[in-house]
Amino acid sequence: MTLLTLGINHKTAPVAIRERVAFAPENLKEALREVCSASQLQEAAILSTCNRTELYCSANSSDARRILAWLSEYHGLNQAELEACSYMYRDEAAVRHIMRVACGLDSMVLGEPQILGQLKTAYAAAQDAGSVGGFLDRLFQRTFSVAKRVRTETRIGENPVSVAYAAVHLAQRIFSDLHDTRALLIGAGETIELVARHLNEAGVRRMIVANRTVTRAQAVADEFGGRAITLTEIPKALEEVDILITSTASPLPILGKGMVERAIKVRKHRPIFMVDLAVPRDIEEEVADLADVFLYTVDDLQQVIEENIRSRQGAAEEAEHLIEAGAAEFMYHLRSLSAVSVLRQFREQVESVRDQEVAKALKSLERGESAEQVLRSMARALTNKFLHHPSVQVRKASAEGRLEVSDWLRELHQLPPEEAGVSLMKSEQSRPAKPSPDDSV
Which residues pair with 45 in a beta bridge? Predict the structure, then answer.
């Protein structure tokens, strides 16, 4: 069985494609069951964030194209288009990749902590769908363990920086003083909560939080002294804010060009700074055409993120060493498990032979035969039966030139070094050659 990772991310695909390949949380269970059925997978998990969509599978090597075909069909995409921006990893490379993802080393913002929580959510969703078994379960548990070590033993998590931080940092570049600004945050998940915290630390004191569920919006708003509204109240709120940052799981845009255009007129063309952190996007891309709107997507935050990468590069190198060790240990453990079934069969076979010989010995004793003779006979029979097949196979392998089989036997049974084979070869070489007719005198 092969561990396979297929996906696209911010390095290989623009947001226009990433948003089309994203999975809504409420559709994950159904999607996992579909991919397992369509691609004949035993296990599968799907990670879907604003920057990546990845499938982790327990599959045969030949299943890669089948999985990619399912992904393109599920989202209504051209398979060739998807192949052009996708990547694939197998076995140890796949293990290293998921560990790098969990540690934030493959993120747009190097070392960002949110991805680990998103990966844990993906794992929980796969468990809920029944698409995770022993293979992926071991992988995820080992991955979480390595990610914890990286967080505690390196400085990768110091001064946490995320896409949320990058958005607020960009706002600070545009507005000379954030104390005088008002912000509208759409969504109430972890990203928006982080945005609210960074805005609050930057001096923003007037915040509005909009969400489909107003109670969740209220929880975020209360923490930072803001107010909560429903999504239907957004058009009115747009008229009074200077900063808008949105991150929801909505499959369709929440803000259209017409809505923003009307708000700009009421504001008498005072500009609005907007950042759309959602994939699929929450704001129609045509909004960027409006003269008084400065609209940025997650891909536009690259400059801020590159500064972060430079500051964390040293810690990232330390993390890479821990990941290499973690991946190697996992593969070592995985390979050791592959011997379990063989060892089980071997034990069952030996025990079967033992039971047969013990039964014969007991019958011999019942007939009154000498106990010593019965024991010697049983021991001889066990020895012959246990050694017969290995002896035949070792001789055959040696005759075919596969001398390593003899070395394996010596290693398995801890036999002392022995030069009999070499001596035999030497004796053959030193033996006088048979005279030929021409040599006769």
Answer: 56
